[in-house]
């Protein structure tokens, strides 16, 4: 994988459903993987920064895992709420550079 | 702690007009970034500053885009003249140092008619 890819591009879930998205990134020269939540008309909000293979991070109902050997990260939302509706961006950070490579995001809509 | 501030939030101009965007980073953050986000795409880096020095401007279209960060704090990104294809969201971000987590402003949504 040369680019950062996110899937799905968009999804709609019902309130209370749990959901997850995928971020695939280049595994060579890995330094860190960042997750952001971007609500409409607001600033992208940093959710997690993950650096170690096997890392798991949690913030409330949102959690993320990291596999640096195969180059993927999962973001999980448990019991989705309408306020979780946003675009979730991941960004790969390669060692030796300061450049983030962003995916195109997953647009989540939680229906009440 | 105040976040990254950008202005204006929205700008509509006609093609060939100039436009400028302003960014005030988080206090104490030495590294400042300008990103371009086209519809349906992830943000792409235009320029990175370490204090007042532009250390990576390889993706900045220098024929029409310019940027400055006087005194190593606020920054301005300018487009002159604007083209239809410049319609996008322009995001500013800052970090304490280069490898640290980047914190973003709300962006400026530019529409060129």
Question: Briefly, what is this?
Answer:
By secondary structure, chain A is mostly beta strands. Helix content of chain A is 0%, strand content 56%.
Describe the overall structure.
The complex is a heterodimer of chains A (112) and B (113). By secondary structure, chain A is mostly beta strands. In chain A, 0% of the residues lie in helices and 56% in strands. Chain A is built from no helices and 11 strands. In chain A, strands 2, 4, 5, 9, 10 and 11 form a 6-stranded mixed beta sheet that branches. In chain A, a hairpin with a 6-residue loop joins strand 4 and strand 5. Chain A is globular, with a radius of gyration of 13 Å. The model of chain A has no long low-confidence stretch (mean pLDDT 94). Helices cover 0% and strands 49% of the residues of chain B. Chain B is built from no helices and 11 strands. Chain B has strands at 5-7, 10-13, 19-24, 31-37, 44-50, 53-56, 65-68, 75-79, 88-95, 103-104, 108-112. In chain B, the strands form 2 sheets. In chain B, strands 2, 4, 5, 6, 9, 10 and 11 form a 7-stranded mixed beta sheet that branches. Chain B has a 4-stranded antiparallel beta sheet with strand order 1-3-8-7, with no helix packed on it. The radius of gyration of chain B is 13 Å and the shape is globular. The termini of chain B are far apart. In chain B, 36% of the residues are buried. Classes of the chains: A mainly beta (112), B mainly beta (113). Chains A and B meet through strand 4, strand 9 and strand 10 of A and strand 5 and strand 10 of B.
């Amino acid at each position: 994988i040369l680019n950062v890819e996110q899937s799905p591009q968009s999804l709609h879930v019902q309130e209370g459903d749990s959901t997850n998205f995928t971020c695939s990134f280049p595994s060579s020269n890995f330094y860190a993987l960042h997750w952001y939540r971007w609500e409409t008309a607001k600033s992208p909000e940093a959710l997690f920064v993950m650096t170690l293979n096997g890392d798991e991070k949690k913030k409330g109902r949102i959690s993320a895992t990291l596999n640096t050997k195969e180059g993927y990260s999962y973001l999980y939302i448990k019991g989705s709420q309408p306020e979780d509706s946003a675009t979730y961006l991941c960004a790969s950070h390669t060692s030796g550079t300061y450049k983030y490579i962003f995916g195109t995001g997953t647009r989540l809509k939680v229906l009440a | 702690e105040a976040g990254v501030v950008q202005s204006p939030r929205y700008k509509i101009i006609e093609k060939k007009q100039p436009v400028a965007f302003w960014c005030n980073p988080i206090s104490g953050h030495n590294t400042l970034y300008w990103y371009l986000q086209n519809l349906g795409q992830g943000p792409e880096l235009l320029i990175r500053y370490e204090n007042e020095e532009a250390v990576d401007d390889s993706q900045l279209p220098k024929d029409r885009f310019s940027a400055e960060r006087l005194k190593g704090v606020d920054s301005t990104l300018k487009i002159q003249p604007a083209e239809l294809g410049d319609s996008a969201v322009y995001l500013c971000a800052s970090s304490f140092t280069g490898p640290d987590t980047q914190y973003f402003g709300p962006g400026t949504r530019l529409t060129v008619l």
